[in-house]
From TrEMBL:
Pfam families recorded: MFS_1 (PF07690)
Membrane topology label: Multi-pass membrane protein
UniProt entry keywords in alphabetical sequence: Cell membrane, Membrane, Transmembrane, Transmembrane helix
Source organism of this protein record: Belnapia arida
Transmembrane region(s): 41-60, 142-161, 167-191, 212-230, 250-268, 280-298, 304-326, 338-362, 368-390
InterPro entries named in the record: MFS, MFS_dom, MFS_trans_sf
Residue ranges annotated for the Major facilitator superfamily (MFS) profile domain, each copy included: 209-403
Predominant location category: membrane
Domain of life: Bacteria
Subcellular localization, as worded in the UniProt entry: Cell membrane
Name recorded for this polypeptide: MFS transporter
Length: 403
């Protein structure tokens, strides 16, 4: 039982970290929009806050391999706590919004460094807990989905109750809890370097570009992120307005999407170690593509029920599947650097996709943009089926996978 505590604490702190990130993003955006300011400023603020995440992931991975994941994780937790607390002070005082955004951007950069350090040691924590790696990553992804759903809703509620300062003080308190839990339960892993590892895997971006399977996953992931990044914040609200839908229907869209992802994520947690990765990948991408097709083709009221269910069911297993593949293919000595570069490459496109979607919707209309997203998702299905390297995902599974 005690051996499972590091993994359990990791699941809890990762969920809290995701929730605080969503809370910050929504609190800043909602505080700007609800104040009557130009919506463009909300988009610029969100872009500035999210952009440093990719750089933090890449740097955190390198530091994790050199300094040790525990040092990087605890240092990241402490510095992010201080950055958000400083942003809360700035929001409570006379400093302008630019200072608040700058401090939150710094906090996101520092927090990403700790996240990749923690992710790099999930295989070891799964072995301590006696769980298959697929199940450990699935449980972490369930916590991720819960945090993703709860954080933004809580951000709106806190801004309504006490403004942006209250929301940021709440985030600061949650980050203090994360720091204490990580300090108490994250293990001290011994450095393990075997002869010849340096020749097989080069730290950083070259580490996954030299692996055709991981490179193919990155290319597919960039395409999917480009499709998904603008859905919740730009495309879905624009479709709701264009279709004359109520606020409650948009809320239902977001809730169904999160609930469906949680259900499919739980299913992968329970059965993922018995399934071949490539069919799961193809099925997930196909379901998400069908959701975007429904969003483009169906009347708005029907689309806002069918589309989020199909999209959520499709994306639920994808993150734990990809994370498990990377953790198995990369030696522990280089896992942090490769994992950080891998995640940074995929997530770097996210703030740009969301920022570019708004003017595109204004220029050509949300209907054409939605059809464009559906075509991109269909292209991702074709890539998932036909790319030879992705078929090698099944070769990553150990012959004697633990049950």
């Amino acid at each position: 039982m005690i051996s499972a505590l590091p993994l359990a604490a990791s699941i809890l702190t990762s969920g809290l970290s995701v929730a605080t990130s969503g809370l910050v993003a929504m609190a800043v955006s909602w505080s700007i929009i609800s104040s009557g300011a130009d919506v463009t400023w909300a988009g610029v603020a969100s872009f500035a806050i999210q952009l440093p995440v990719a750089a933090g992931l890449a740097l955190g991975g390198l530091l994790s391999d050199r300094l040790g994941p525990r040092r990087v994780l605890l240092g990241s937790d402490a510095l992010m706590f201080l950055a958000v607390a400083a942003a809360a002070l700035a929001a409570s005082g006379a400093l302008g919004a630019a200072w608040v955004v700058a401090l939150l951007s710094l906090g996101n950069f520092l927090g990403a460094s700790g996240n990749v350090a923690q992710d790099s040691r999930v295989p070891e924590m799964a072995r301590l807990a006696g769980l298959p790696l697929e199940r450990a990553n699935g449980l972490r992804d369930v916590a991720f989905n819960v945090g993703t759903a709860a954080g933004p809703a809580l951000g709106v509620a806190l801004v309504a109750a006490g403004g942006l300062p209250l929301a940021l003080w709440g985030v600061s308190a949650a980050l203090g809890v994360v720091l204490l839990l990580d300090a108490a339960f994250f293990p001290r892993f011994a450095a393990r370097r075997r002869a010849g590892e340096e020749a097989k895997v080069i730290a950083g971006f070259a580490g996954f570009t030299a692996d055709r399977v991981l490179l193919s996953v990155v290319v597919l992931g960039i395409g999917l992120i480009a499709v998904f990044a603008s859905l919740d914040e730009i495309v879905a609200p624009s479709l709701a307005v264009a279709g004359g839908l109520r606020d409650s229907q948009l809320t239902l869209f977001l809730a169904l999407n999160g609930a469906a992802a949680l259900v499919s994520g739980l299913a992968y947690t329970a059965m993922g170690h018995r399934l071949r990765p490539h069919p799961v990948l193809v099925g997930g991408v196909s379901s998400a593509a069908a959701g975007f097709l429904a969003l483009a083709a169906l009347p708005p009221a029907a689309a806002f029920v069918a589309a989020p269910l199909l999209i959520g069911l499709g994306v639920g297993p994808l993150s734990p599947l990809v994370m498990t593949t990377l953790q198995r293919r990369v030696p522990a000595a280089h896992r942090g650097a490769v994992l950080g570069a891998f995640m940074a490459s995929i997530l770097f496109v996210q703030p740009f996709a969301a920022l570019g979607a708004a003017p595109l919707v204004s220029a050509v209309g949300v209907g054409w943009v939605t059809w464009g997203l559906a075509l991109l998702a269909a292209g991702a299905v074709i890539a998932a089926v036909t790319l030879p390297a992705l078929r090698e995902l099944d070769q990553t599974v150990p012959k004697a996978a633990p049950r």
